[in-house]
Specification:
Blueprint: H1 5-21, E1 41-51, E2 60-64, E3 77-85, E4 94-104, E5 112-120, E6 129-136, E7 143-151, E8 158-168, E9 175-185
Antiparallel strand pairs: 1-3, 1-9, 2-3, 3-4, 4-5, 5-6, 6-7, 7-8, 8-9
This protein binds 2-acetamido-2-deoxy-beta-D-glucopyranose (4 copies).
One 2-acetamido-2-deoxy-beta-D-glucopyranose is lined by residues 67-68.
Length: 186
């Protein structure tokens, strides 16, 4: 075929169309807002977490059993919807729920992989969530877990959670854990 001007025009149009068809319009990046609008805040949260595994109304249930009767409960997975309260008593004001799971991920000691959403229900934080993903070895006095994100008032959050067992019933396995959470957010 000869390279007639019509053919060249056709090629040119094809090229244009090809450029337009690139899936580049699903993402839009703009410069971040000025410093005045992007003020980073630090929030400290203090609450108690109630993990009830016994009785008629458990808040955490075992999904899988440990492998090989492992003493470190390696392989166990528990799903929880644990109440979070302002004070240490389970009857104290509820401020949210810890929804997620903890799984035996260590073979030489009890060491959980803990993945949970702290879903707040109190006051202006009602509906806001902090997401925690980390290692929780409950036999250690204080455990630190990263806060890897958040939603609602906690958009862009990151920080850490410190957990200490406040009360533990050896017979039932029920526990109350004190949490201090420090997060940076906007
Ligand atoms: C399970 O127990 C057997 C016998 O004690 C042992 O040989 C094996 O290594 C264990 N397996 C795991 C995965 O712990
Ligand atoms: C919580 O309230 C229930 C019912 O009112 C009561 O039976 C229980 O003793 C209370 N628990 C604590 C720790 O105060
Ligand atoms: C939290 O929000 C839910 C849904 O919007 C609402 O039903 C509930 O009453 C609120 N709770 C509090 C304590 O404000
Ligand atoms: C949480 O912070 C309070 C006040 O600073 C402190 O008394 C408590 O020991 C802390 N607990 C944990 C688990 O970090």
């Amino acid at each position: 075929m000869s390279k007639s001007p019509l053919f060249l025009l056709f090629l040119f149009l094809l090229l244009l169309l090809n450029v337009e068809a690139k899936p580049a319009n699903f993402i839009k990046t703009s410069p971040s807002p000025s410093k005045a609008r992007l003020r980073r805040k630090i929030s400290h949260l203090h609450f108690y977490f109630h993990d009830i595994v016994s009785g008629r109304n458990p808040t955490a249930v075992r999904i899988t059993q440990p492998v090989n009767n492992s003493l470190s409960i390696f392989g166990m997975i528990s799903m929880m919807d644990d109440p979070l309260t302002q004070g240490p008593s389970p009857n104290s004001t509820e401020v949210g729920r810890a929804q997620g799971m903890y799984a035996g991920a260590a073979q030489d000691e009890v060491g959980f992989l803990q993945a949970m959403n702290l879903c707040f229900t109190a006051g202006k934080y009602n509906g806001s969530v902090l997401t925690v993903l980390g290692r929780n070895a409950p036999m250690h006095p204080i455990r630190e877990m990263p806060v890897i994100g958040g939603s609602g008032l906690f958009r862009f959050a990151n920080g850490y959670a410190l957990a200490r067992t406040h009360w533990f019933d050896l017979n039932t396995g029920d526990a109350t854990v004190e949490y201090n959470v420090t997060v940076m957010h906007y």
